[in-house]
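Dear colleagues,

As part of the handover before I leave the project, I'm documenting each prediction I ran so the next person doesn't have to rerun anything. This entry is a single chain, and its sequence is reproduced below.
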Amino acid sequence: MSAYDPADDYKAFIFPMHAEHGMLLLYCTRKKKKGPHYQVPGGHVDKEDFEAAAKLQPDVTGPSHLLLSCKIGAARELKEETGMDLRDSLERLIPVALRAQEEGSKELSCELKKRVFFSVDITDEDLFVTKGDSKVSLGLLQAMNRHLSHLMLKLSHEHQGFVFEPNPTKAVDLLVQHSGGKISTALRMAIERGTIKNGVSQNTDRLTEPTMIDKVNDESKEIPLSKEKKSLLDCFDCWRDK
C-alpha cells in the first residue's frame, strides 16, 4: 500500500522541449479572472492514476509510487490537452530536479507545493504535420508561430492555440499566471539549477509580430470572434495581417 493519499491533491505538469523550436506553451483565454495567458500541459493527478501505478508496479511504495502516479497523470493530461500520446512511453518523461533531494524528505526533488514537474524531448513526429493550407483539419490547430504553421495539435476545449518559445527565460515570464505562479517559479528554479538549459535557440524566429497575449494586454481586451464562429487561428491570421 502507498503512504500517499490521492486526496492530497497532487498535480503534475510537463515542460515539452523541442530541440529546434523551443518550449511548447498552450494559449488559454477561457479563464475570465486571469485573462489570456500561457500554460504548460498538466493538471490533477487522479485517483485512477494512483491505482494504475499500483497495478503497474505493485511492490513500489512511498515517493517512487508518487512519482510513477504523477507520470501516469501527466501523460494522461498531455494526451487530453494536446493529442500527443506518451502513455505507453512513460520513460520519456524525465523528472525536473528543482533542488537537491534532502535525505528523509517526503517531498520529491521535482516537486513544488504538491506540483510535480517533468520534461520531455519532443520532435515534429510527436505532433501532427500538415502539408496543406487548411487552418483546421479534424479538430487540429496550427502553431501560432508563423514559420511553424505546418505543425498542429488536437487541443482540448481549455486551450485556443499553442506556441513554441525558444527562450526558457522568456517562458518563465509567460507562465506567471498559470497555477498561481508555481509553474513559472518551478521553471525558474530548473533553469537556475541547470536542469532545463537557458538561452535562446538558434532559431529565434518565434513570431514575426508580438504574441497574441501581448496584443491582448496592450489593448486590455480579448481579440473578438465573429458571429460566424471563426476559429482562433482564423482570427489570429486576420490580426497578424493588419
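Confidence is low (pLDDT under 50) at residues 199-242. The chain has six helices and twelve strands.

All the best with the project,
I.
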